[in-house]
Amino acid sequence: MEALLTSTLSVAIAEIGDKTQLLALLLICRFRKPWPIIAGMLAATLLNHAGAAWIGDFISRWLDPKVMTYLVAAAFVAMAIWILIPDKMDDEESSLDKYGPFMATFVLFFIAEIGDKTQIATVLLAAKYDSLFQVVAGTTLGMMLANVPVVLIGKLGADKLPLKGIRIACALLFVGLGVTTLIFV
């Protein structure tokens, strides 16, 4: 259960202000069909994070558990720093419009997650915990918790959110996760 909760919390926090949240907002403004967009996000995240978790599990078999703990703690602190750097959107979505909201969302979310902090978090969490299912379920749940409200609320008030303050609070939470990881070595 710890793997599920930590995975959910870590990814939900990391996702705040991320490019995939901006992508979710862009897609709902473009297509105005929330359910195909949500389904595309879910499918892309499950596929992407399942692959990332498999890689994390593979890595954990080769590293000493104590070394892995230090790497996970350092990665949480690195993610705190990464969160402070705002994401920028690319304008590559227009060529996918013809495939509809589900396919456009699936392709764009899958690509946006490659090398993203939430994918890296998934690799690290899978390396730390023995339950791939709980990690993938948790990271996917975290992504959905952070992105579905963006889709459902849409453009209402999105320009008024204090993203800099939100990023700082999230960075502090990740530093706390890194310190907690080291304390419980």
TrEMBL record:
Location of the protein in the cell: Membrane
Main subcellular location: membrane
Residues that span the membrane, as ranges: 38-55, 67-85, 132-153, 165-184
Membrane topology annotation: Multi-pass membrane protein
GO cellular component: membrane
Molecular function terms from GO: metal ion transmembrane transporter activity
InterPro entries registered for this protein in UniProt: GDT1-like
Keywords: Membrane, Transmembrane, Transmembrane helix
Family designation: Belongs to the GDT1 family.
Name listed for the protein in its UniProt record: GDT1 family protein
Lineage: Bacteria, Pseudomonadati, Pseudomonadota, Gammaproteobacteria, Aeromonadales
